[in-house]
Structures are given as C-alpha cells and as structure tokens.
Amino acid sequence: MTENELKSIHSKLIVIAEYFDNFCKENDIEYYLMGGTALGAIRHKGFIPWDDDYDTFMDYANYTRFKQVVKEKLDTNQYYFQEEDTEEFPLFFSKLRMNNTTYIEKDSVGRDMHHGLFLDIMCLNNTYKNKSLRYLQYIAARAVNAKALAKKGYLTQSRSKIVALRLAKVLISSSVKKILLRFIRRLNNKDTEYIGHFFGRAPFKRTSFKRSLIGEGKYVKFETLSLPVFYSVEEYLRVRYGDKFMEMPSQEVKDLYPSHAYIVDLNNNYSKYMQK
What we know:
- The chain is 38% helix and 18% strand.
- It is globular.
- The protein has helices at 3-26, 35-43, 60-73, 131-152, 159-171, 174-184, 233-241, 251-254; strands spanning 32-33, 55-59, 79-82, 94-98, 102-105, 118-127, 194-196, 208-210, 218-222, 225-229, 261-265.
- The protein is built from eight helices and eleven strands.
C-alpha cells in the first residue's frame, strides 16, 4: 500500500472516528483508544504512519449498552454496525463500517458481508487477580477465537496455526463454545482489580492490566480530533508494548503488522467488487 493510499484511508477513518466519538458522547458511552491507535495518539499525535486500522475498546457495561443503543440510533444511511459473534461476522469484537466504501480483507474475499471501511470496537472483560486463572481465561478466549477465525476463513502460512484452526473447527462445538464464553465473561458483573482483552493477537503477558489505569480517562490530540485514552495511558502502553514503546520500531517489527487489505476503494460501494 502506497503512502498516498494510507493517507486517504486515514482521512476517511477520521470521519468515522469523529462520528463514533460524537455518538458515544451523545449517548453517555465511555470508550478509549486501544493498542496501536492509542500508541499512535501518544507517539505520533495521530495514526502510526504505516498503520491502516483504528481500534477502540469499552468495558463490558459500556459495550453492552453501546450494542443496544447503536441499533436504535445509528445513522444507517452513512454507517453499518457489524455485531460480533454472528453468522455474518463470527469474531469476538464489533465493527462500525462506512457505507459506500470498500475495504475487503484478504480472508474475507467472496464472503457475504458488509465490506465497508471500518473501525474496531473491542470489549474488555473483567479478570482474575490470580495469574493462573487469568491464563485459563486467556486460553479459553484463544480457543473460541480460533474456531471463529476458522469459520471466517482466516489465512495463514504458519503450520502450527493451520493445525490449531483445524482442531478448533472440529473440537469446539457450539455447546463447548458456550461454556468457554461463560467462563471468559463470568466476572463481568463484578468489580475486579484487573481487566483484560483476550481476543486480540497480543501474547498473554500483554493482555491484562489493573483497572486503575483507566481512571477518569483523558483526551489527547489525534490528527484533527481530541479523543479519549486511559488516564494512565503510558502505563497501559508499557504493559502492551514494553518499556520502549516511544521508540520507532525496526522494519522487521513493522513487517509483523501488514495491511490486511485486498481491495480498497473509498469512493464506491463494495458490491461493485463482490463478483470479482
């Protein structure tokens, strides 16, 4: 993907981000920038230059409320809410997609779903202070996530991942999936010291942190906007990326995060490409 193509994607993502931010404010829903988007906000005052996605997360209460409100109040002329764990989108996070755009990912080519440009909305799950129990929660999430990735048609060259996906597809039945999800979410109505995001690509030690890092949140510059991050966002980034998160990564590290885009067209509806 060229630098100009990335800039065009960033410009459109800012439009989605502004709408999402205003929607959450108007409906008293708290959310925060996460992962590489939070890192971009602190290190670059906006997007990481080579990154083409936009990630947010909410705690369980806000995420549950958002999923309810968005179905009632979303501007459906402009946007589409793609809910998690559905036949259309089997993964365990949701997306807000822009209508009349195209962003078809490599593992979604030909799949009957909305393929507009998007931002991701993740749910933080309450977790245990006990590290062993937290690890079991992480493993359970990895198992159901592997099942979902296999269903979505996830592409990988890794033999170990191919084996894991095939095993999950066979071994994780719908009843096993329900049991695992119940375990992953069992603390979500309790007040816990730790909170985590277990459905992403981060290794176990990078997935959870103390709830106190969230604090009251704060707004920081992100491109032309002012957007919310954890009050102790630097400490969160230290957990997620290590002590040197403010240093520019090597090309080798950058290559670990390639664009997932297969077809990008920011001016035309994805239906134009569905037969190709």
